């Protein structure tokens, strides 16, 4: 559990401009990840995406969180990617916000999903069937992106 606390401290540090502290956390998770810690790898990639945002870095973080079955981090990474893309005028942001919504829902975070419904009017049209169709397309797109980078 301490690794989760430290991970959230690092994520919050990048968000609040506490880069010195956040970078220490990032280095810690990088070293644990290199040592093969399965729990550190998704957190490391998520922190890396928050530190230096790009769609590719968020896609990698989402993939790592999904592989580790860390649904709460996968939801957060999707939401952060959606916000990042929205801030940059990319319509693909909706895809990530919808994925985050359903992941939060699956995790049982009903207050969060209710808040997201209030913030994003397009979520009212999101249905379980819509999730399935877009989830498959998103997975294929992310896999193609990863393969294009030679991973």
Portion of residues within helices: over 70%
**Tally of helical runs:** 8
Q: Provide the structure class.
A: mainly alpha
Write down the overall geometry. globular
β-sheet strand percentage:
under 5%
Distance between the termini: 30 Å
Radius of gyration over alpha carbons? 15 Å
The average pLDDT is 87
Beta-strand segment tally: 0
Low-confidence spans: pLDDT under 50, at least 5 residues? none
Query: Biggest sheet, in brief?
Result: none
Oligomeric description of these chains: single chain
Secondary-structure element series: HHHHHHHH
Q: What would you say about this model in short?
A:
The protein is an all-alpha fold and 151 residues long.
What are the main properties of this structure?
mainly alpha
